[in-house]
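Section 5.1 Outputs to date
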Amino acid sequence: MGILNLTPDSFSDGGQFLSPEDAVTHARHMLEQGAQIIDLGGESTRPGSEPVSEQDELARVLPVIERLLKEDFVLSLDTTKPAVALAGLQAGISILNDVSGGNQEMLEHASRFQAGYVVMHTQGSPQTMQDSPKYDDVVDEVRAFFDAKAEDLQALELPRLWIDPGIGFGKTLEHNLALMRELDELIDPRWGILLGSSRKSWIDHLCNAPDPLDRLGGSLCSALAGVARGAEIIRAHDVRETVQALEVAKGLALIDPTE
């Protein structure tokens, strides 16, 4: 899953793809590099980010969706707003990526349009989530969160469902590492697993890499570990390098070659 941020303030590439032309060009590049899904979003959810209006978010995403769907891209829309989700589905997107933790109205929209759905775990809002995240056992609590939602999600009969443990969303470094080390504890036939660890600040905390563009090595390592421990989708900024690393890992039998 290639990341396409249509925002001025995303943590690693904010402002790079504000024009629809630049966004479409980047999406084409990611497709050529091996992306199977393009995940686009018009509102940053980095720690401390401020929300934007529905109108602003729609103005950022709809022109790009319309252009990309003419070229037969598989699109995922990263949003927390039901109205934006509905507009994206009406335009033809295939997957909703909901970082709010499973908004019921968005779930109903996904069911109505028979779209795939990604539900992410988070603790708090982007404005406050990194202030003081606390868990007794982060892996058990994240698993319990998804188990509690499973019955309602299954009742909607969504064609595909993925869970995202929410690396960096209301988690300390140790919480993030515990989830990535024990990702296989979240494996379940009811859902696939999406891992979004690319370029995030947990890498800086381990490797002294304050610039997100200097976190490629850590991102690749987490992608390999994620697939080895059950991730079905890797959400990545650096598509070419991630695909290459995964192909080499398959060749070396470090991960299942059928994945």
